[in-house]
Design a protein that fits this description.
By secondary structure, the chain is of the alpha/beta class. Helix content is 51%, strand content 10%. Strand 11 and strand 12 form a beta hairpin.
Length: 739
């Protein structure tokens, strides 16, 4: 405590000060409550130390969470991003504070987090140095707690939060200073608080001439309609944004046309401030450059002119139309349009907002793990492969020279390959886990791929061998059996009447090749894992569609580097470019971050016009692309639409792959992308229910409406009921226990 009016000041690196005038420590703590602070206590068990910290946090008004294990602590931090973490390091047999601190510091979101260690009363200097080097902000020694301990926690928390706030303010200020758009900020009385350098250059004023004065004059003239200013002021008073064109006076008296956006900002006390962004119109600058302006000013003006060009994106046109419609709309309609504008301005227009984040971790982890390239997650349960063992099959299976050379027992497993209920696992067993070459030879022959590509069957065989050799047989799910399964589904969809009517031969060949290569060299880990691990592929592809970009690129590298397997070598250049582009587009469409965009575009561009009997839409180039994307997406995740036993086998395999990823993330101290996929706790039925609910049902409803697939929809319904039944019985495994 200080004297009645004595301020206290905290110093950091002698360059930054936090000043706060308070009558008592109690008032200091109250001041800190303005900023909500989240604290994580990592204690293996309750004792006087953990209780003391918990009491201190409660008295300070902080939100407090408790974790008992390092895994729980990491998961908790990923979800809540605490401002301060207190780790018990008195009993290192439970967990190592240095390792846990290092894991947390490896995450970018911990940049401004305060981490505190609690150590025994007598601890060596070397040990303290190790803790500080690991990223600890402060070390507490074991002792009884006093009000001073509470204050120290408050101090560290306030520093953490204010660092974040200070960093954000600096970032915003830097962005405004470097912006080529003119920015003006006024208070509620229309007095200028700030203008940026671009504004000075365009309008001819210096900042000192404007601060505290009324905004630049907008003259009432023929150019500015008489009611324009009233319209603008009315928008701002009602808390709405105004966007449009008006003429303003520069310092030299010239009238300049500006494209302006004015946004009200709620300040302290709930009053409105407005912020203007103006850019010079091309027509107002035809005589610029000869009036003695500096090079710097001309450069700013030039950049401003670029921003004012009249090439508008469709979404911008829609927003402008809605803005115009609001002016003459009654209040309920105007408010509804405000909500529409708010939605349209988001960058994720096609990604649903998950409303069950807290209630359903399986859905949250699945969606996050599949749709994010950053920190996210997934789920499963212990699983032993039910791989079918072939009977009376030689230990070595030679590669066939042609279809006629396929062994009889392998040929028998492919007799019903044109049926949706074809058992890919029987073929996997018969071919000793090399089903892609055999199924590929038969499917490609049925569709006349060699004839289309002008290549020999031996070249096709060599290509299939090379592609299959680059699938990882050690992966439980993303191996050549999955590729063969997707190829089978693709061929099945291509046989449907509506699909055949819509696609050209080049589209069919592109679809079959894309299905074959769509996961080549898949490492059995998700994009999020590769990005978090800083893998070479993530660096190469800038953390964007990492795996899908790699699959497409590697497929063409494998194909073109050796004439013996180059199925494209005899194609005419233009035809090859068309085919290559279609293959790449389809492989990239399997990336899940664009899932909802592809489905929504398909529904709006294909399903709805078809329902209105507009048949001509099927053959347009744009819509053929949408159909091909939807085709390979459905083929790629068709497991829930397979017969029940096949569906169960696939569910076990994908779960095992996610378990293995979670295990590796824990071993390496990486963020756990899908925490519910812990092999000891995961519920496979729940994960399947979430996947079907969120990704499969709507997509296959749309695809069924187009391609007519009643058998698939019946399987989907049966499989969903199966998983639902297991979940209702509180079972977490693939199958119910044997009677």
């Amino acid at each position: 405590e200080r004297g009645k009016n004595e301020p206290f000041t905290l110093h950091l690196n002698r360059t930054w000060q936090l000043g706060c005038k308070a009558k008592s420590l109690k008032q200091s703590i109250t001041l800190l409550r303005v900023i909500p602070v989240k604290v994580l206590l990592v204690f293996s068990k309750d004792d006087s130390q953990s209780n003391g910290f918990l009491w201190a946090c409660e008295r300070a008004g902080f939100s407090c969470s408790i974790a008992r294990t390092p895994e729980t602590a990491l998961q908790c931090f990923l979800e809540k991003h605490h401002d301060i973490i207190i780790i018990d390091h008195r009993h290192s047999r439970y967990f190592d504070a240095e390792v846990l601190c290092g894991s947390i510091r490896a995450m970018k979101s911990s940049e401004n987090t305060v981490i505190v260690a609690v150590v025994k009363r007598y601890v060596s200097f070397e040990k303290l140095l190790l803790l500080i080097n690991a990223g600890m902000f402060h070390v507490f020694t074991k002792r009884s707690f006093t009000i001073w301990s509470t204050f120290k926690i408050c101090r560290h928390c306030s520093l953490s939060v204010l660092f974040c706030f200070n960093r954000a303010c600096n970032a915003i200020f830097t962005a405004m200073e470097q912006s080529q758009e003119a920015i003006e900020i006024t208070n509620e009385d229309q007095l200028i608080q700030y203008v940026n350098p671009a504004y000075e250059a365009i309008m001819g004023y210096q900042q000192g001439e404007l601060l505290g004065k009324e905004g630049v004059e907008v003259p009432k003239s023929e150019k500015n309609k008489p009611d324009l200013l009233e319209t603008i002021n009315s928008c701002i008073r009602n808390g709405k944004e105004w966007q449009g064109v008006y003429f303003a006076k520069k310092k030299n008296g010239d009238s300049v046309q500006q494209n302006v956006k004015i946004m009200p900002v709620i300040g302290q006390g709930g009053k409105h401030k407005d912020r203007r962004k103006g850019s010079l119109d091309v027509r107002s600058t035809t005589s610029r450059g000869s009036d003695g302006e500096s090079g710097s000013q001309r450069r700013h003006s030039s950049m401003a002119r670029i921003h004012s060009m009249t090439i508008e994106a469709p979404i911008t046109k829609v927003i402008n139309i809605i803005n115009a419609a609001q002016e003459s709309s009654p209040m309920p309609v105007a408010e509804a349009l405000d909500r529409v504008l708010e939605i349209l301005r988001t960058t994720e227009l096609y990604s649903p907002q998950l409303g069950t984040k807290d209630e359903d971790p399986h859905t949250n982890d699945l969606v996050g793990g599949l749709m994010m390239d950053g920190l996210r997650r997934l789920s499963g349960n212990e699983y032993i492969f039910a791989t079918k063992q072939p009977h009376h099959i030689p230990g070595h299976l030679g590669t066939p020279l042609s279809l006629s050379d396929i062994p009889q027992y392998v040929a028998r497993t492919m007799e019903n390959e044109e049926s949706w209920d074809f058992d890919i696992f029987s073929l996997e067993a018969a071919t000793i886990r090399r089903p892609l070459v055999y199924l590929g030879l038969k499917v490609f022959s049925r569709f006349g791929v060699c004839e289309f590509l002008h290549c020999s069957e031996s070249t096709l065989r060599a290509w299939l061998q090379a592609i299959e050799a680059n699938y990882h047989s050690s992966n439980s799910y993303h191996n050549s059996t999955h590729a063969a399964d997707v190829l089978h589904a693709t061929a099945y969809f291509l046989s449907k009447e509506h699909v055949k009517q819509s696609l050209d031969p080049v589209d069919e060949v592109a679809a079959l090749i894309a299905a074959t290569v769509h996961d080549v060299d898949h490492p059995g880990r998700t994009n999020s894992f590769l990005c978090n691990a800083g893998s070479e592929l993530a660096i190469l592809y800038n953390d964007t569609a990492v795996l899908e970009s790699h699959h497409a690129a590697l497929a063409f590298q494998i194909t073109t580097r050796d004439d013996k397997c180059n199925i494209f070598k005899n194609m005419e250049r233009t035809e090859y470019r068309t085919l290559r582009q279609a293959i790449i587009d389809m492989v990239l469409a399997t990336e899940m971050t664009k899932h909802f965009e592809h489905v929504n575009k398909f529904v709006n561009s294909i399903n709805k016009p078809l329902a209105e009997s507009v048949k001509s839409i099927l053959t347009s180039p744009e819509n053929r692309i949408l159909i091909k994307r939807m085709l390979i997406k459905c083929a790629d995740v068709s497991n829930p639409c397979r017969p029940l036993q096949l569906c169960i086998e696939w569910a076990g395999r994908i779960s095992e792959e996610y378990f293995a990823q979670t295990d590796e993330e824990k071993r390496q101290g990486l963020p756990v992308v899908m925490p519910v996929f812990d092999r000891n706790t995961c519920s496979i039925p729940k994960s399947q229910i979430s996947f079907i609910d969120y990704f499969i049902t709507d997509m296959f409803d749309a695809w069924d409406a187009f391609a007519d697939l009643p058998n698939l929809m019946q399987h989907l319904d049966n499989n969903f009921k199966y998983w639902k039944n297991l979940d209702e019985r509180k079972l977490r495994s693939l199958r119910p226990p044997m009677e």
